Known about the structure:
By secondary structure, this protein is mostly beta strands.
Amino acid sequence: MPGWFDQTEQIARAAGMVGASVTAHSIGPLRMGNSVLSAGRLVSHTCIELPGRTEKRACVIAELEIEGTRLRFACLHLTLHKAVRTEAIKLLAEVLPVDEPLVVVGDFNAHVQELEPLRSVLTVPDMPPAGFPSFLPKSSIDHIAFSRHWQLEELTTVRSWASDHLPLVAELTLR
């Protein structure tokens, strides 16, 4: 459609990266979903459709090759509705590809206790830093989860006014 553009492609190009995105929900010509940007080579990407009430939700999983190492990086944004969110978390625990190095990030809209089903397959840090709302962070609803292939070195937030959430920054080492 004239006047509309692929936001992921534009940001990736401007940053000298590659991008992968999935659409979870559309309203007319507007598409909403999740994206992954990488300085590495994008091998492929897939979508896990997640439960949603008024808005569909999805998780994008990018298979990347960085300096000869293959890994998967996933991004999601879960619903505010607790019952639907719980269903999505259980589904993710069943279908996420944990056989290779995997990192999952996003706005889970959930406190760490709700992520218990993911702990059967991934490491979920117990005390992520508060990042919501960005102007006075009190809640830890943004999370990172990762496969046994990774060691967490540091987990912090960065002060920013770019969003209502502070960016969550993790330093991970591949074992």
